[in-house]
Write a structure and sequence with these properties.
Blueprint (H helix, E strand, L loop, with lengths): L20 H6 L37 H6 L34 H5 L7 E6 L5 H11 L7 E5 L5 H11 L7 H25 L3 E5 L2 H11 L4 H12 L6 E6 L2 H10 L12 H17 L4 E5 L4 H17 L1
Parallel strand pairs: 1-3, 1-4, 2-3, 4-5
Helix pairs in contact: 4-11, 5-6, 6-8, 7-8, 7-10
Bound molecules: adenosine-5'-triphosphate (ATP) and ligand LXEULUCI.
Length: 318
């Protein structure tokens, strides 16, 4: 349960059961080092990134297969030890399986990556309402649609969520940014990557854009710095499509007043902060019109859900 008493969308103890080959390769051995073997040789935590002038990988730059397949360092630097890539040719759903005689390993390495969709927006813009309708509209599909949220969606990440949203806690802006990134690393490694690798669709309420908007713009840490920090957490996982729920301040304030739940630590920061966060989301959507679809969040919930459902079905159809 979170600060508002809501259960996590995809919360479950990931455990070891049913984990895909890909996930097993990404997860550390017991007592091992970290979510990616790639974390060897990383820059030290703490202090600002002084890694020189290499730009982080632009969001939205990778195609669906490539986003998971390529194991290289998103910053073009030292190549991390790459996970085994999903690099085989794409097999259309229903097409004949590769001919007999090919090794099991080869077959395992050839699933079609599923679409990764995120829902973004300011607090009270209607993300949870939209996602809850989508759960009904997209139930029972094969491959399934998996719904999750950030921060959270995995046992350890839900614990981090509780810390992040605890109104009793104070923390430095970089501490906050690292904790969001840590929760993201857990969710990506344990839940998102394995599912995409099995061809499932993943819909995530908030993702990296929220860190860029809230910590990068809102807290003033810088969009590039926050993306850079998060490159270790997301690896090469980039949303195929992001729905940004745009809502004017007045309607947002009206919805906030109508909410009975106590405000969490971030919601308490104040209007100026939220104004900067909004600028962040607007900048992201301007910079990446191909990935970010802006929705008028004042439309009726059923209309919004219908639009997003159709887009997701379109993505699944390829
Ligand atoms: N399309 C809509 N039209 C009118 N009211 C809406 C709409 N969508 C959501 N609401 C209402 O706005 C309030 C906030 O919605 P919701 O909890 O879905 O937002 P949220 O973006 O998930 O918020 P948070 O990020 O703070 O969790 C709720 O009272 C909800 O009923
Ligand atoms: C992922 C992410 C979230 N936040 C903020 C945004 C919200 O205020 C809370 C999450 O609560 P919600 O009810 O689930 O929307 O956390 C952030 O500041 N940075 C992030 O990366």
């Amino acid at each position: 349960m979170d600060a508002r008493g809501r259960a996590g969308g995809g919360e479950r103890d990931a455990g070891d059961h049913g984990r895909s080959l890909l996930a097993r390769e990404l997860l550390p051995p017991p007592g091992g080092e970290g979510p990616r073997g790639a974390l060897q040789g990383r820059r030290p935590l703490g202090g600002r990134y002084r890694g020189g002038d290499r730009a982080p990988q632009p969001l939205g730059a990778l195609d669906r297969r490539g986003a998971v397949a390529r194991g290289g360092d998103a910053r073009g630097g030292r190549r991390p030890r790459a996970p085994k890539p999903l690099q085989g040719p794409r097999r259309r759903r229903g097409a004949p399986r590769p001919e007999e005689g090919r090794s099991l390993k080869r077959l395992v390495a050839e699933p079609t990556r599923g679409p990764f969709v995120t829902v973004e927006g300011l607090d009270f813009s209607g993300k949870s309402t939209l996602v809850s309708r989508l759960k009904d509209e997209l139930a029972g599909l094969d491959p399934p649609v998996y719904f999750t949220r950030e921060p959270g969606g995995a046992a350890a990440a839900e614990r981090v969520r509780a810390l992040l949203l605890d109104p009793e806690l104070e923390m430095a802006a970089w501490t906050e940014a690292y904790l969001y990134a840590a929760a993201r690393a857990e969710l990506v490694t344990r839940e998102i990557l394995p599912r995409l690798g099995r061809g499932e669709t993943v819909v995530c309420e908030r993702f990296l854009d929220s860190s860029v908007a809230y910590q990068g713009y809102g807290r003033g840490l810088g969009a590039r710095e926050v993306r850079d920090l998060n490159s270790w957490a997301v690896g090469t996982v980039v949303p195929d499509m992001t729905f940004y729920l745009r809502l004017d301040g007045e309607e947002r304030a009206r919805r906030a007043r109508g909410s009975e739940a106590p405000l969490d630590r971030i919601e308490r920061v104040g209007d100026e902060f939220m104004g900067r966060v909004e600028v962040g989301f607007e900048e992201i959507s301007r910079a990446e019109p191909g990935r970010v679809r802006v929705l008028d969040a004042s439309l009726p919930p059923a209309e919004l859900a219908g639009t997003v459902r159709d887009e997701i079905l379109g993505l699944r159809a390829g």
